[in-house]
Design goal:
Layout: H1 2-16, E1 19-27, E2 33-40, H2 48-65, E3 73-77, H3 88-93, E4 98-107, E5 110-120, E6 124-129, E7 132-137, E8 141-146, H4 150-167
Parallel strand pairs: 2-3
Antiparallel strand pairs: 1-2, 4-5, 4-8, 5-6, 6-7
Helix pairs in contact: 1-2
């Protein structure tokens, strides 16, 4: 898959800069858009300057490797507050927070689930869905993201406040 190939190409450069790659997504066909989502490994807030720095660094890698034929648009962004959940450590970091998960195939007759993240292990995430605990293997997840809640906003604000104190 093209996104996976690009992720392998750019991950070393992104990690060397002190960032974690969250997601690579390619969309469109006439002039594709390559979306790179990254965040500081330290947990601090991502800045516009960080995005520009990553864009410059990975542009050089992409120019050399040329994984996308023809012209394309490159977008570099942070995951944001209601971020996608793409790695086990994302689920661990947000234990107790509400998530929406969509699976590739039905589990118990459904493909869409919403509930707080109860636990995570190497193979699956467990959500509490409508009062019952449901284990969803990572291999079965098509896409997942956090749900914007008051608790998530409070966590985000506390992180922002902490970052500002460290900078002072």
């Amino acid at each position: 898959m093209l996104a996976e190939r690009i992720a392998k190409l750019i991950t070393p450069a992104i990690e060397a800069m002190g960032f974690d790659l969250v997601r690579v997504q390619v969309s469109g066909s006439q002039r594709p858009t390559l979306q790179i989502m990254a965040e500081p490994a330290s947990g601090r807030t991502m800045s516009v300057d960080d995005c520009a720095e990553i864009s410059r660094a990975i542009s050089a890698v992409l120019d050399v490797e040329d994984p996308i034929a023809g012209a394309y648009s490159l977008e570099v962004s942070s995951p944001g507050i209601d971020r996608p959940l793409t790695r086990a450590k994302d689920y661990e970091r947000f234990l107790g927070h509400e998530a929406k998960v969509e699976t590739n195939a039905p589990i118990d007759g459904r493909k869409r689930f919403k509930g707080p993240i109860k636990s995570v292990d190497a193979n699956a995430v467990e959500l509490t869905v409508e009062g019952a605990d449901l284990r969803i293997p990572f291999a079965a997840i098509h896409k997942a993201k956090l749900v914007l809640t008051d608790a998530l906003i409070a966590l985000h604000q506390a992180t922002e406040d902490n970052n500002e104190q460290e900078e002072a």
